[in-house]
Design a protein that fits this description.
By secondary structure, the chain is an alpha+beta fold. The protein contains 5 helices and 10 strands, in the order ααααβββαβββββββ. The strands form 2 sheets. It has an 8-stranded antiparallel β-barrel. Strands 4-5 form a two-stranded antiparallel ribbon.
């Protein structure tokens, strides 16, 4: 192709030279014409080279384009998702964006107007509580209980009692107001004696139902308002002395102090109503009140005691129950 173009251009050049020779009437020499012809031929060669280079570039570009398209196809085939599925998902999202939005509530409107949101109130959750009853310390009894949550509305509480009461110390008032008497089977009557020590132990069991636990915003067990049935058992030993008129020698009688020891069993069952309040997110105060049916009996006597004052430790009958306990939450 290059050769044909070259020959055509050469013929055209010769014709131009001949025609130019006729027009100038032989003024230019043959040497000048040959130089001009050489310059024109060099320009034609340069143009042909440029044309050949462009043709090669045009031929190389489709091949490079094919290579890139093949790379794109291989990358698409190596993808682990379906492009059609992605297209469907995008169409679904687009349709959701075009759906009309519901009217905003007054609360949302207030937030949109810039009203600050209230910070949520932190309400810690507790599963158990260890409580001490300071009121019973006035009776000379150390009472410690452990309460464990079973469900948000129910809990189980068990308490242990250890008693050592005398007419000295903080139990003086309680001990001084006790009336001690023992049954004398020989004369079928009760004889009073001077008490010295009341000592023993016991256990108290409660099954608590927290009444407000199911209401929204209320605390669950072991905090809040509760009602609880309870059962109690105590084993108490009472020691003291009484005076007896004893014959020390023949026909010689005198009064002597005789030691008295009695074993008392106390059974009680009843219902209490209380309210446990958290304090500093670590402590709790439990205020309660209720009633018990109390049955007391001495080991050396048949049946339960009668005609005892309700303040007495060996009282049998219906008695009130009230107190305040303080402890820690866990």
């Amino acid at each position: 192709m290059k050769t044909i173009i070259f020959k055509s251009l050469s013929v055209i050049g010769l014709l131009l030279i001949l025609l130019s020779g006729r027009n100038t009437y032989g003024q230019d020499s043959i040497a000048q014409k040959s130089q001009m012809l050489d310059i024109k031929l060099q320009l034609l060669d340069s143009k042909l080279d440029l044309l050949d280079t462009k043709i090669k570039l045009w031929e190389a570009k489709p091949k490079e384009l094919d290579i890139r398209l093949n790379e794109i196809d291989s990358r698409v085939n190596s993808m682990d998702f379906d492009p059609q599925m992605v297209t469907r998902k995008l169409n679904e999202i687009d349709s959701l964006m075009k759906m009309p939005r519901p009217e905003s509530t007054p609360y949302e409107s207030q937030q949109a107007m810039g009203e600050p949101e209230r910070e949520p109130v932190f309400m810690p959750v507790y599963n158990s509580a260890i409580m001490l009853d300071p009121v019973r310390l006035m009776e000379g009894t150390f009472y410690l209980s452990y309460e464990r949550m079973l469900t948000p509305s129910f809990s189980f509480s068990v308490g242990g009692m250890a008693t050592y009461s005398t007419n000295q110390g903080i139990s003086n008032y309680y001990f001084s107001n006790q009336s001690f008497a023992m049954y004398d089977a020989s004369v079928n009557e009760y004889r009073t004696y001077h008490g010295e020590v009341i000592a023993g132990g016991g256990i108290n069991v409660q099954f608590r139902n927290y009444l407000m636990a199911k209401h929204p915003g209320r605390r669950s067990a072991p905090l809040g308002l509760y009602a609880a049935p309870q059962l109690m058992y105590r084993r108490i030993g009472i020691k003291g002395t009484h005076q007896e008129y004893i014959e020390v020698e023949t026909d010689v009688w005198e009064w002597q102090n005789v030691e008295v020891t009695q074993k008392l069993n106390i059974y009680a069952g009843g219902v209490i109503l209380g309210y446990k309040i958290p304090l500093f997110n670590a402590l709790a105060i439990d205020i309660y009140a209720g009633g018990n049916i109390k049955l007391s009996g001495y080991s050396n006597e048949d049946g339960f005691t009668r005609y005892k004052d309700w303040f007495n430790i060996d009282f049998s009958g219906v008695s009130p129950v009230a107190g305040i306990a303080i402890g820690i939450l866990k």
